[in-house]
């Protein structure tokens, strides 16, 4: 079986309204990704938000390298999560967590 | 320099909120449809503010009448794609900076002939992303169809493409890195999409700076005599 290449993305979520948790964010990205690219793409994406700091609204998501651009496009189109208006900003992408923190 | 050429700031007193957001998301400037004393100014935060006018009217004649009065007072002049005659006329006039897909819900895409003319005159196709943020499902897919077809026609015809937010609230503005990912949704490759966000708006700003100077002439015009 071919080994999947992973990508880690440092992101910031600009928001207006109450804070949101990692599950809400992850569900919102998946929902938009599903709407734009379909079920197979969601399955292949292996999206996982490994770290999210809700004080600074920054986090690190990981996904399959092939899905990266589509996934970030889906996240960029999210306008609201619950009652909170948001604007997603991908900061930096890397193949390793270490590379991202450098 | 990442610039957003279409931010719909409703009033002057909201401008600070938008400049603050622009600084947070990494924009170096944006264009607003508000009258300002200078066409291009810089705020204390270092954000470049440009004036923008969308020339709307009933047909080409109406647009032709408006243009001479505003060119030297405005840094970005956009003409919405609607009427074929007006779009073709605008595509030939290098005083115009952008042809905008203003109403994607009406499924009006740019024609190849218009795109070729615009490409020859350095006029870019502007794709506002706000309609994609407001809609979902089938409605969004209709807008994507119009955008993807228009972007493909523009690129094939040698016309530059610009992505702008059309944000009416600060939170609807998008970071340059988010914008070029949205460009991928519109059928562009990574390189082209980054160019639409980082390079083309900057080139339009530089050209505008030259156009607003009173010494500037449209190509093809020659000074035959100067009164002393």
Relevant terms:
heterodimer; A: alpha+beta; 5 strands; B: 228 residues; alpha/beta; TIM Barrel; eight-stranded mixed sheet; 8 helices; 43% helix
Structure, explained:
- The complex is a heterodimer of chains A (102) and B (228).
- Chain A is α+β, with helices and mostly antiparallel strands and 102 residues long.
- Chain A has helices at 22-37, 39-45, 68-76, 97-101, and strands at 6-16, 48-53, 58-64, 80-81, 84-94.
- In chain A, strands 2-3-1-5-4 form a five-stranded antiparallel beta sheet.
- In chain B, helix 4 links the parallel strand 6 and strand 7 (124-128).
- Chain B is globular.
- The mean pLDDT of chain B is 89.
- Classes of the chains: A alpha+beta (102), B alpha/beta (228).
- The interface between A and B is medium-sized, with 20 and 25 residues.
Secondary structure layout plus pairing:
The complex is a heterodimer of chains A (102) and B (228).
Chain A lengths: L5 E11 L5 H16 L1 H7 L2 E6 L4 E7 L3 H9 L3 E2 L2 E11 L2 H5 L1
Antiparallel strand pairs in A: 1-3, 1-5, 2-3, 4-5
Helix pairs in contact in A: 1-2, 1-3
Chain B lengths: L2 E2 L10 H11 L3 E4 L7 E3 L5 E7 L4 H12 L5 E5 L3 H9 L5 E3 L11 H9 L3 E5 L1 H5 L2 H20 L4 E4 L11 H10 L4 H22 L17
Parallel strand pairs in B: 1-2, 2-4, 4-5, 5-6, 6-7, 7-8
Antiparallel strand pairs in B: 3-4
Helix pairs in contact in B: 2-3, 3-4, 7-8
